[in-house]
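Standup notes
- HV: blocked on the assembly model, inputs below
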Amino acid sequence: MVKSILFVGVGGQGIILASKILTQGLIKFGYDVKMSEVHGMAQRGGSVTTQVRYGEKVYSPLIGDGEADVIVAFEKIEAVRYLKYLKEGGSLVVNDYEIYSLPILIGAEQYPENIIEKLQESVPKTKALKAAEIAEGLGNIKAQNVVMLGSLIKALGLENMDWDSVIKENVPEKFYSLNVKALKAGIGTWDI
Amino acid sequence: MKKIMSGNEAIARGAYEAGCTVAAAYPGTPSTEILENIAAYKEIYAEWAPNEKVATEVVCGAAIAGARSLCAMKHVGMNVAADPIFTIAYEGINGGLVIVTADDPGMHSSQNEQDNRLYAPHAKIAMVEPSDSQECKDFVKYAYEISEKFDTAVLFRTTTRVSHSKSIVELGERVEVGVKPYVKNPKKYIMTPANSKVKHPEVEERLEKLQGYSNNCPLNRIEWGDKKIGIITSGISYQYAKEVFGDNASYLKIGFSYPLPDKMIIKFAKAVDKVYIIEENDPYIENYVKTLGIQCIGKEFIPTCDELNPDIIRKALLKEEPKKSYELDVKAPSRPPMLCPGCPHRPVFYAISKLSKLKKNVIITGDIGCYTLGDEPPLNAMDTVICMGAGISAAIGFEKAAKMGNRDDKIFGFVGDSTFFHSGITGLIDAVYNNSPIVMCILDNRTTAMTGHQDNPGTGRTLKGEPAPIISIESIVRAVGIKDENIRIVDPYKLDETEAAIKDAYNANEPFVIIAKQPCALLKEVQKRRANMKCKIDLEKCKECKACMRTGCPAISFKEGHVIIDQSMCNGCGLCYQVCKFNAIEKVGE
Ligand SMILES: Cc1ncc(C[n+]2csc(CCOP(=O)(O)OP(=O)(O)O)c2C)c(N)n1
């Protein structure tokens, strides 16, 4: 069985690092993995995605409509934008966080209201969390990506693997303990 | 040892293991990381060249001198490099030569969707196409063997999803092949008409030999499964085909894709009931298969435009609808890319946008880089974007045509620093030589920002991170012959200065240059230096006129009845501070 995880967010939120840590972990735990990311234009404040697929043998790095086991959305409207990729019965991990795009900033478009409630109504397995606040509480808002990663790992049922060593190998030493705490906090978000 | 690598990292690793000693490139998504990764190997000389033509010529010279060499470029870069490629095809090589083209189906970061597989038959050079990272590494090694065995350059073609997808790679050791001796051979290396006349038939013979190889080489293979359907495919399309059909089809997986393996194709087609050709963009394989008299199904179902994926194949060939998902009665607002907070390009576009509202004859020819985003609202400061360099050259033509049509258009052409070195200098020379009274705005943010901050001839550092002479844009402009009184060097963070320069330029009737100098806000040293510099709104003084929001800065928004500046995004560039008529914005932390 191949599992598919779609990370969505806004350029600069750290989704590439989060998907990299996940990928490195999956390899360490013995899976075949493919990960696809897009560089360039999109990173200037645009909408960005990375895709991770793992299992015994993976061919396509791309996830099709209705195929993602989990969508991890770092920003609310990005969850809405990419929702069609979520499998029926799949989980949605969504950051209760807003980043205005240029059309919204200049008043050409509106930021929709009550998105989290609407997502929760539509998708039974929705986990909404305030990853930015959690990370700020731990001392650095930049760790919100690893909080999101923790929540994803719990959704995948992989929380008992040795993620500490994966983090150790993939983030600079001075951020190690912050990120380990962020990952734990993310895993813990399902207990509330 | 096993490692997860992107296709681009694996190509770099392949070059390393194959004993490559010279590599050159000009950055361009999705190819950039190839040279960035090669640069980390001390055994390989690696450089950023000013453009793809130069990079290709550098490695042509290196290959003739005896080094296994590699150059890399994005698909449109190959248009720039085509000239040397078509003639090195005649000369052949000494040390092996690999030319990587990374195409961008779906145009994630490109201005067109050209399919560079068509260059291989056009230039008459061999081509290989990997479909994952392991193949990226292995095929580079094969490519050097093919190059040296058949005395040809090899085109190595990837696409965004091969270059930027990561998968597991088994690493090997480097084989030191050294640099071969160079023996003078004018008949081979000097392409005068007389020598080329001898060479061209040799090239045709070489193609026949290469075709023989194609039919027997390990890069082309048949995977037998159910024989009702036979799929011929290459590159990332192979992975998509396997994802959709699994064992319910047989595959002719093509890794050596020019010349195509005619005998193998005929044998495969005979053994299966129906032939499908699954390929992205142009019908490259399909057209060839049809010339062999084989009936096949391809582009009548698989679209030519945009990126391919398994869903499209399922729908096209199996008539399966995409899987169901959840629905929501909310439409996600669009999120296009935009100039960053504190971007030094913004004030220049703000100033020109303001001028163009007053003077209706202002035309702006843009170019490719972060500054293309000056075209977005609310600035809307651009009329054309074609290709690198055209920001200046197209301005010349626009001006000449306007004059012929008795219009008084005033043309402002924009290029970035990296674009200026790439192909802006020739346009500048044309403007002076043919006396074109255009304004050339060179936005010098001291980096190649759009592609992820590569060094260039103006930054003072090489690809290897070593100090280099800084090539002065200003000195080039003067040397070409722009008069002192027609040059303005401005700090774009100073709006008065920038607006004054634009006004002078508007009134000039000779070629005019504005150089806006301020480093990119995303550069690490800039972020450090400006970490505490912010602009803040004094809510008591703010009249909510929203003039500051018309700069298009993403840090400024109108929330709960107030204009606010997001302090985590602001770098204190001060543009909003300068446009506020009510002194309601203060600058702190300087
Ligand atoms: C022929 C060609 N080569 C490479 C590219 C990729 N590319 C697009 S923008 C850009 C860099 C532009 O840098 P610069 O002119 O300094 O502008 P900045 O992004 O820094 O504003 C490059 C290399 C391209 N579009 N065309």
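- HV (later): unblocked. Residues 193-216 of chain B form the longest helix (24 residues). Chain B is about 35% helix and 20% strand.
- Next: hand off to the docking folks.
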